[in-house]
User: Fold this.
Amino acid sequence: MAPKIKIEDTLPSGEKVTLSIEGGELDEAKILQLVSALKSLKETSLIASPDPGEESLKDKIWRIIVENFGDGTWFSLKDVYNLASRQIPDLKITAVSTYVTRLVSEGRLVKRGTKPNTRYRIKSLMVRDV
Assistant:
């Protein structure tokens, strides 16, 4: 089996990067090129990242969800996209899908159903008096 080197990291923007190289003739120069490529990506991400005070796209989408569906209403990706596209120019539905999926994995949203009928809702805590 040929040797394989895999480098994984997360950019300051939150994007995950995986670089790998596989083959019979791996040498130090090739590995250093991989590390250099990752370093270049991180530096580019820092340059392109928004100002610390500026709201990220994920935060904007979350704010739109809370403002419009904070009462526990079930919603679809298209519902969020239709609302968000009015406020965020050049927004694509794939970006909305990505961030909604991340919000589900973070536990902020609940998901039910399957494509194309998938619905989401803000996860709420129920408190009972004992």
The radius of gyration is 20 Å. The helical segments are 28-48, 57-69, 77-87, 93-105.
